[in-house]
Specification:
Blueprint (H helix, E strand, L loop, with lengths): L1 H16 L2 E2 L3 E2 L4 E5 L3 E8 L4 E13 L5 E2 L5 E7 L2 E6 L12 E2 L4 E13 L13 E9 L3 E13 L1 H11 L5
Parallel strand pairs: 4-12
Antiparallel strand pairs: 1-2, 3-5, 4-5, 5-10, 6-9, 7-8, 7-11, 11-12
């Protein structure tokens, strides 16, 4: 009797690992989001009354479900680690004007380049709510009624004005 129970457990485990369950049939694979660069270079644009942090996030989203998924950039956010959790430091300001969100078909993967601009000084918005500019972050995206996707971690490295000046001085006089 013991061998029989063990065989059923092994078969059940094998079917679950292969993408099926005994009770529900094929399992739906999730929608996944990933930032396709480990490090993102950001710039700071400074004016007399406001300073902006700007960068672009290269994003890949795979739809492993059996139904199309709509992707709404207005439901994205950038989060930083905060103890054992992640805290939102930026979200886009979107208008109430209706736009058509891109759709990802079942089994399809699409890539996007999402621009981020955040006021770090002055009256502009959206504001950057992070404790620092350089650091480790993660992208979140809400899809459907209440499903929140979390990307892999990535690093933001801020290219300062002094770094740009040094780079410009080092490339002057060279032929390309």
């Amino acid at each position: 009797m013991r061998n029989r129970v063990g065989a059923v457990a092994v078969i059940t485990y094998a079917m679950t690992a292969a993408g099926c369950t005994v009770f529900t049939g094929p399992k739906s694979h999730p929608v996944t989001i990933s930032v396709t660069s480990d490090t993102i270079v950001a710039g700071v644009r400074t004016g007399p009354d406001i300073s902006w942090l700007q960068f672009t996030i290269p994003v890949s989203i795979h739809n492993g479900q059996s139904a199309p998924v709509s992707i709404d950039y207005c439901l994205a956010s950038v989060n930083e680690p905060s103890g054992t959790d992640w805290t939102m430091v930026w979200a886009p300001v979107c208008s109430a004007i209706a736009t058509t969100a891109p759709t990802i078909a079942p089994g399809e993967t699409k890539t996007f380049q999402w621009s981020v601009a955040a006021a770090i000084r002055g009256p502009g918005g959206p504001k950057w709510g992070g404790t620092t500019l350089d650091g480790t972050y993660r992208l979140s995206l809400v899809i459907g009624a209440n499903e929140k996707l979390e990307s892999n971690s990535f690093v933001i490295s801020v290219l300062t004005t002094s770094a740009v000046s040094a780079r410009d001085r080092s490339t002057r006089g060279t032929l390309h």
